[in-house]
TrEMBL record:
The chain crosses the membrane at residues 46-68, 80-98, 118-142, 171-192, 204-224. Keywords: Membrane, Transmembrane, Transmembrane helix. One of its GO terms (biological process) is membrane assembly. It comes from Poecilia latipinna. It is found in: Membrane. This is TLC domain containing 1. It is a multi-pass membrane protein. GO terms for cellular component: plasma membrane.
Amino acid sequence: CLPLLVPATVLVCSLLFRVAHQLLQRLPVPTVVRQDAFRSWKWKNLSVSMVHSVLTGTWALTCAVIWPETLSNIHKFHNTLSYLLICVSTGYFVHDAGDIILTGHGRGSWEFLLHHAMVIWCFLYALYTQLYIAGALIALFVEVNSVTLHLRLMLKLANAQSSSIYHINKIVNLFTYVMFRLGTQFYLTWYIVHNYSWLDHGGYFLITMMMMNIMMVIYFYRLLRTDFFPRSKRYTGQNGTHNNNSKKFLSD
C-alpha cells in the first residue's frame, strides 16, 4: 500500500467491508430486530462495525506489543503491517459513512459522520505522508472498547437489557472505555501538546484531538447516565421502546 496506491487500496478495503456486510446478513437475527426497519438497519451496521473493531483492535495491540517503538515514536515509526492496518481501517470508515448516508440515516447519525470525517482525514494524511502512522495505530486502541460498545447496542436492539450478559458487559464496557478510549485519547493529546513545537501540522491534529476528546467525554457522560444512573423509564414500553423514541433510546 504505497502512497500513490492509497485511493485504490482504501477503495478495495471499503468494498471488502461491503462484502462482509452482505455475508453477515445470512446470520440469524432476533425477531424484534427484523420487525423494525431502523433496528434491522442498525443491527446490520453494527455487525460490520463489530468485525472492524475485533480485527483492528487486535491488530493494533499486537503491533504495539511486537514493536514497542510504536508507543514512543508516534511521529515517524511505521512498518508494512501498521501501514496496511491504517489502509484497512480507513476503508471501513469510508464504507460506514457511505452506508449511513446512502440508507438515509445521515441526519440522525450526524455525530458519527463528523467522527468518521475527522478520522478519515487524519488517516489519509498519515497514509499519504507516511507520518503519524504509529499515532493512527494507537488511536485504533479505542476499537477494543468499541467491541463492548457495539455489543451493548446490539443487546439493546434485541431488548436484552435485563439479561446477565448486558449487566456483565456494561461493567466491562466501563473499564474498556476508560482504559482504551479515554486513556488513548488523552495519551495522544498529551503527546501532541508535549511535542507541539516540532510536529508537522501539529495545530490541525491538536484541534482534531480536542474535538474528539469533547465527543468522547460527552458520550461517556451519556453512558454513565444511561447504564448506571438512569433517570426514568420513559423510553421503555411493552416492546422495549416507544416507536417514536426508538432512535433516541438506541443512541444512548
